[in-house]
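Obj.: predict assembly geometry.
Materials: sequence records (below).
Method: joint structure prediction, all chains together.
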Amino acid sequence: MDINASLADDHPHPMDAILVRPLRFDAQRVGNEDILWSKSSPEFAMFSNALGIHVPWFERFLVAVMRQSRERVDSERLRADMKAIIGQEANHAHAFEDWNNRLINRYPQLKSLSDKAKRDFAQMQAHKPDQFKVGFVAGYETFTFLAGLIILDRYHELMGDADPTIRALWVWHQVEEVEHGSVAFDVYQNLYGEKEWYRKAMVMLAALHIISETFKAYHVMIKGEGWYRRPRRMLAAFGFFTSFAIDLFRSSLPVFGRRYHPRVHPRCNHDQNRIAVAWRAWVLAGGDPTHLETANVNKWCTDPITH
Ligand SMILES: [Fe+2]
Ligand SMILES: [Fe+2]
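Observations (raw structure tokens):
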């Protein structure tokens, strides 16, 4: 296909269109030897595997909170975006649950962590006030869209040489997290916009939640791979976790500014990530988004882009 023709028609800002793409990935075909699915960075593979353990429960919580809040939002356009984020996140939750079942098969201790995350979100859903729930979702979504941008920007370093199925899952997820990256923020602004300090507190609470949930699963995986007995591997794993957390924290600083909106975050602008642009065009043109070959993505990165 002519990728440039499709790219020229593409939207100028990554948050302009939220398309629901109901994808399923054959996670069960990944063998134990490829559980750390990125040869470019096994530490990133472990980090993303660990991050994903509690994610489907958050995504289901988000769907419930959006459904509950929809009628109270007074903007028709935002209600349409809420419908789209519900569609995207419901599909993400399915895909992550499949992959997580494969991970639980490899590291059985993850089952209790996943069950606990499920219970925690159910408790939050049942007992916390609406403002907390909407605020927490907005805080959490700050990091999913920023992680989306960071991972796509560091694509070659993190997953340039990787399993084509699980790489495809992550590219799909990250592109869509960026696409709907302002919806939860806009919902919070629409319903509780005057409570700016509360929004910022929720960003910090969500950061702590994500880091602690990810670290618990990361520890199980380091242990499962025997890396605690291999000092170099262990140091590399902790080094990666720390450096990624710092990258994410640095990127989140503009979120605490007075006139912040996700669309004007310095990392999210019209100078779009070329993999995201090419991926969207490729999917629209009928490419298979559940399987991403290395050569395919590399070609997107070397082809000239015409906006
Ligand atoms: Fe998601
Ligand atoms: Fe999201």
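Conclusions so far: Confidence is low (pLDDT under 50) at residues 1-9.
To do: check interface contacts against the pulldown list.
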